[in-house]
Every structure is written in C-alpha cells, then in structure tokens.
C-alpha cells in the first residue's frame, strides 16, 4: 500500500468536511455519515487485509497504479 497523502486528497477532504458542516442542521444523519466515510473505508480495507493474511480472502488489486488516479472521473482513464 502507498503511504502519505496523494495530491488533492487533503483538499477534497476539506471540501467534504465543509459540505458536511453546512448540511448538518438540515440533514444531521447525512452529515455524520459523510464525515465518517473515510474512517469506515479504512476499517474495511484493514479488515480485508486481515482476512487476506488469514487466508480467508484473495485480494486482486494492482500493487502500482503507475501514477494513475484510480478514482478519476475523466473519460478514457
């Protein structure tokens, strides 16, 4: 797994936190879930890695994305 923060990740997190704060009053549950999304994702990744170490699952994923943002929404990527 990569270490450190990819370019743009911190900005996206700040934007999501700002949006969550803005909608907190009208949609408190949605705001709470939005703020917890990254933690929940990381727990899922940790659990998958634990299961892989135990031989319970096989994770099929590239070790290196060759600098390509795997979450890109750009056509053709």
Automatic annotation (TrEMBL):
Domain of life: Bacteria
InterPro entries referenced in this protein's UniProt entry, alphabetically: DUF6363
DUF6363 domain span: 27-75
UniProt protein name: DUF6363 domain-containing protein
Protein source organism: Candidatus Acetatifactor stercoripullorum
Taxonomic path: Bacteria, Bacillati, Bacillota, Clostridia, Lachnospirales
């Amino acid at each position: 797994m990569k270490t450190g923060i990819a370019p743009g990740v911190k900005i996206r997190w700040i934007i999501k936190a700002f949006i969550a704060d803005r909608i907190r009053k009208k949609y408190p549950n949605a705001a709470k879930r939005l703020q917890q999304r990254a933690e929940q994702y990381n727990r899922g990744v940790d659990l998958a890695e634990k299961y892989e170490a135990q031989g319970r699952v096989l994770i099929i994923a590239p070790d290196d994305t060759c600098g390509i943002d795997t979450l890109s929404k750009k056509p053709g990527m």
